[in-house]
């Protein structure tokens, strides 16, 4: 194969920021080392590497679950072998922006469950908070260690055609995807053993140790008993739960493995009950405690909230953090940054319309073909309307549903997501991507893992990167 044939057939999309090309003729500097490698590697060898990556994912059991797929629910996570490469200057801005944002969001959660100054000062309307399903009255006045509510977060970023990074959404409840970031890097090490050190790519492998350290800091005990609470094998992120528990050396438990006695939480063991000090929970608020939330829940632990209130157990992330990542609240994050930190946002929000406002609903309805509409409490790419792809009948049906409870929906203009080269059918082809960096907060501040999960819309022309909607991922290289 001609050394440059891979690149000569690459069709850069118009009006779109391409991560590899400045223009059709010039590569971005951060890609030069990897491009040199591609130029000296045959397509047969690259295809073998792609096959090897699939085998490695299969043998490691790296899967996710799709709940509405007729073919079966368990799927191997699609992986593209060409990494997404980020410069040190770009990463510095991302890191500063996420730290700023998370500081403000954490202060907001503390304020909302205590004094509520932001409501009293008229920055956020009270009815928006109280009508939000993620607002937990049960959290009012609870003291949390070091005032940290959000210990683990994933902030979704997109790069628009102006080259700037924008925040798509904040994931503060039980953010997932970090195990895929770790696995992607392990696969890259196998596929390109010489290139990572040569290109000076920053390591992500310390994440589990850092997470364990942040969890351990929450207790005054020298060796606190930390467990990871999973909903069980049918959860879409179960692979991640098992991976993180194994890498941290902690017990993976389900609700039935725990019991509350005298406001203390215990784990059942073959030697009797063992007290639990810290719970990294991957169970949603609604299912956490059947005595206080959903009475039908078999996933949580009866009485766990009472133990939490008394300070006998720490729950990570704190219950009620969903108030800060609800899509209706997202609109106000720049105001929060100004209010709590007296700073300008380093990372911008995407322009967002709250459909509970009649004038904004009217505007969105008129411009529906340029809009994406989402449920305020939605996730995983489910329940969205992409205006440019939907039929007239679908649009009418969706808008009829919106008009029943418009305050439960937001709309955003359809953006030109940046593209990155993907190795598809023996060719390099541009596909839309986003980025989810992972942050860990504790008593000593916020640490952000240098990389994150780059998600890829593998269908040509698609803007939806969610794995549940046919997306995949690629390794993210942050250069030193």
TrEMBL record:
Q: Which organism is it from?
A: Mariniflexile litorale
Descriptive protein name: Circularly permuted type 2 ATP-grasp protein
Q: Which residues form the Circularly permuted ATP-grasp type domain?
A: 83-457
- Extract the PANTHER family matched here: BLR5612 PROTEIN, SLL1039 PROTEIN
InterPro entries per UniProt: ATP-dep_Glu-Cys_Ligase-2, CP_ATPgrasp_2, UCP005522
């Amino acid at each position: 194969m001609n050394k440059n044939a891979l690149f000569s057939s690459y069709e850069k999309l118009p009006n779109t920021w391409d991560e590899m090309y400045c223009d059709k003729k010039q590569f971005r500097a951060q890609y030069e080392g990897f491009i040199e490698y591609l130029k000296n590697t045959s397509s047969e060898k690259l295809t073998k590497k792609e096959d090897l990556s699939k085998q490695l994912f299969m043998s490691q059991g790296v899967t996710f679950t799709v709940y509405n797929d007729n073919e079966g629910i368990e799927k191997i996570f699609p992986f593209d072998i060409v990494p997404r490469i980020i410069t040190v200057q770009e990463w510095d801005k991302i890191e500063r922006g996420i730290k700023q944002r998370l500081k403000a969001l954490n202060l907001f959660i503390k304020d909302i469950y205590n004094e509520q100054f932001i409501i009293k000062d008229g920055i956020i309307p009270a009815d928006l908070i109280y009508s939000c399903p993620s607002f937990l009255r049960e959290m009012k006045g609870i003291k949390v260690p070091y005032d940290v509510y959000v210990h683990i977060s994933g902030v979704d970023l997109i790069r628009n055609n102006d080259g700037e990074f924008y925040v798509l959404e904040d994931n503060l409840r039980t953010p997932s995807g970090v195990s895929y970031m770790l696995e992607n890097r392990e696969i890259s090490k196998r596929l390109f053993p010489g290139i990572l050190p040569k290109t000076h790519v920053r390591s992500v492998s310390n994440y589990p140790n850092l997470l364990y350290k942040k969890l351990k800091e929450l207790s005054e005990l020298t060796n606190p008993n930390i467990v990871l609470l999973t909903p069980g094998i049918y959860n879409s992120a179960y692979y991640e739960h098992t991976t993180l528990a194994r890498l941290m050396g902690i017990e993976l438990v389900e609700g039935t493995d725990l019991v509350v006695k005298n406001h203390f939480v215990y784990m059942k063991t073959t030697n009797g009950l063992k007290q639990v000090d810290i719970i990294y929970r991957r169970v949603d608020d609604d299912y956490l405690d059947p005595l206080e939330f959903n009475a039908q829940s078999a996933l949580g632990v009866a009485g766990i909230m009472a133990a939490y209130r008394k300070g006998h157990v720490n729950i990570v992330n704190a219950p009620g953090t969903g108030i800060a990542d609800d899509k209706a609240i997202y609109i106000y994050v720049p105001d929060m940054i100004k209010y709590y930190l007296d700073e300008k946002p380093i990372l911008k929000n995407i322009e967002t319309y709250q459909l509970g406002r009649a004038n904004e609903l009217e505007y969105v309805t008129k411009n529906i073909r340029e809009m994406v509409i989402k449920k305020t409490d939605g996730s995983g790419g489910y329940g969205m309307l992409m205006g440019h792809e939907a039929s007239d009948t679908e649009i009418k049906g969706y808008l009829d549903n919106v008009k029943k409870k418009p305050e439960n929906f937001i709309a955003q203009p359809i953006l030109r997501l940046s593209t990155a080269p993907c190795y598809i059918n023996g060719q390099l082809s541009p596909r839309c991507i986003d980025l989810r960096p992972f942050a860990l907060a504790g008593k000593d501040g916020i640490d952000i893992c240098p990389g994150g999960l780059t998600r890829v819309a593998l269908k040509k022309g698609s803007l939806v990167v969610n794995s549940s909607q046919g997306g995949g991922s690629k390794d993210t290289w942050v250069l030193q």
